[in-house]
């Protein structure tokens, strides 16, 4: 029976996972030695780096579990677990160092590919070709290269000029849009002022209508009162409580007759 299993099943499970990762790392680095393509080497190295991160996480879990069960274990068992953890760390560090070595070699290979690419062979061919040319041919070749350079410069100038034209047109369009927005804002202000003025006029008209209604009501009451007085006077001419209203007084002749009779 595995001594770690006798201590804790969780420790045994973590130990098994770490052992599986170590085997995968060993096989992965052996496979990496046989790969010649730089891109495939980089991908394989990234995969191995991920496995090493998982292994580091599991070793931390193993250490936490060891500390949890340390109080109920005897000294020999705790020593065995500590040595097992140190062995795991040592083996992981060896794979980390191997990974750094492969990463350095891979970076150097990339730099070599950059400096020893097709351009260098092309340059060597140019050197050999130049050595076999006459002075006139060299001058013609140089003039041809200068013409191509001038054409490239002219194309660049045209691109810059077109870019400036596009920028100028864009600025003009933005300026026109800004002016249009300013006019719209001014029109909105005018509309707002007109609406406010119209609201004030409506309020004034409302107050005038209310005043006119009060005047009409007062005139109506006055007319009603006059009509009532006229009706009462016609019905009872001798009523002394109601004063004579112009136009309704008895004829002057009747008054003189009454005075003579008295």
Averaged pLDDT: 78
Proportion of helical residues: over 70%
Termini separation (Å)? Answer: 161 Å
Tally of individual helices: 7
Largest sheet: none
Task: Sketch the topology as an H/E string, one letter per element.
Answer: HHHHHHH
What are its keywords?
262 residues; mainly alpha; Methane Monooxygenase Hydroxylase, Chain G, domain 1; 7 helices; elongated; disordered C terminus; membrane; SNARE binding; transmembrane
Structure description:
Its main location: membrane. Residues 143-205 form the T-SNARE coiled-coil homology domain. The protein is mainly alpha-helical and 262 residues long. It has two domains: 3-124, Methane Monooxygenase Hydroxylase, Chain G, domain 1, CATH 1.20.58; 177-262. It has helices at residues 3-7, 9-34, 38-69, 75-115, 118-131, 135-235, 252-261.
SSE arrangement:
Elements: H1 3-7, H2 9-34, H3 38-69, H4 75-115, H5 118-131, H6 135-235, H7 252-261
Provide a quick synopsis of the model:
This protein is mainly α. The protein is 87% helix and 0% strand.
């Amino acid at each position: 029976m595995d001594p770690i299993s006798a201590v804790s099943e969780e420790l045994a499970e973590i130990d098994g996972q770490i052992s599986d990762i170590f085997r995968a790392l060993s096989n992965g680095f052996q496979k990496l030695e046989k790969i010649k393509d730089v891109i495939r080497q980089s991908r394989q190295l990234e995969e191995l780096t991920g496995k090493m991160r998982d292994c580091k996480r599991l070793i931390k879990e193993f250490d936490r579990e060891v500390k949890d069960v340390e109080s109920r274990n005897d000294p020999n068992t705790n020593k065995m677990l500590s040595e097992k953890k140190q062995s795991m760390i040592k083996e992981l560090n060896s794979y980390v160092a191997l990974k750094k070595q492969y990463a350095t070699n891979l970076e150097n290979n990339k730099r070599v590919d950059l400096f020893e690419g097709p351009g260098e062979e092309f340059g060597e061919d140019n050197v050999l070709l130049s050595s076999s040319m006459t002075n006139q041919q060299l001058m013609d070749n140089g003039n041809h290269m200068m013409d191509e350079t001038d054409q490239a410069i002219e194309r660049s100038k045209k691109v810059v000029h077109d870019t400036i034209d596009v920028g100028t047109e864009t600025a003009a369009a933005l300026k026109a849009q800004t002016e249009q927005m300013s006019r719209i804002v001014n029109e909105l202000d005018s509309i707002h002022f007109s609406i406010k003025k119209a609201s004030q006029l409506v309020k004034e008209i409302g107050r005038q209508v209310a005043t006119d209604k009060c005047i009409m009501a007062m005139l109506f009451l006055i007319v009603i009162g006059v009509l009532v007085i006229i009706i009462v006077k016609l019905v009872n001419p001798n009523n002394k409580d109601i004063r004579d209203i112009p136009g309704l007084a008895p004829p002057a002749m009747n008054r003189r007759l009454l005075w003579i009779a008295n």
